[in-house]
Write a structure and sequence with these properties.
Number of domains: 1
Structural class: alpha/beta
Distance between the termini: 6 Å
Number of strands: 3
Order of helices and strands: EHEHHEHH
Helix content: 25-40%
Radius of gyration: 13 Å
Strand content: 5-15%
Length: about 100
């Protein structure tokens, strides 16, 4: 099993393709879509739709409490989580539906 930290940012597309084409490769959500990372490596147009098709390959990730920005409840995986591109069950999947080895 290989879990790609930070969804492979800034090479979002390349790592999404790697996860899509390999059964035991997953993307983690650490820092993806945060206001901090959107300044450094913004999510490219169309990427959220691509990841929606890979929802079974996305696992929750966090660097908290050692993050390079102040924590606020509105930071985190905003584009991949609270907009629910992967369906209404997305936040629940983060908590209990992550892949097992």
């Amino acid at each position: 099993m290989l879990i790609i930290a930070h969804a492979g940012l800034p090479e979002y597309w390349e790592f999404a393709e790697l996860a899509a084409n390999n059964p035991h490769v997953y993307l983690d959500t650490t820092m993806v879509g945060t206001s901090y990372m959107e300044q450094v490596a913004p999510i490219p147009p169309g990427y959220v739709d691509t990841v929606a098709g890979l929802s079974h390959k996305v696992v929750f990730g966090t660097d908290f409490p050692s993050i390079p920005y102040s924590y606020r409840p509105d930071t985190g995986t905003r584009k991949l989580g609270t907009r629910k591109p992967m369906g209404e069950e997305c936040p629940l999947a983060y908590a209990q539906g992550t892949p097992a080895a």
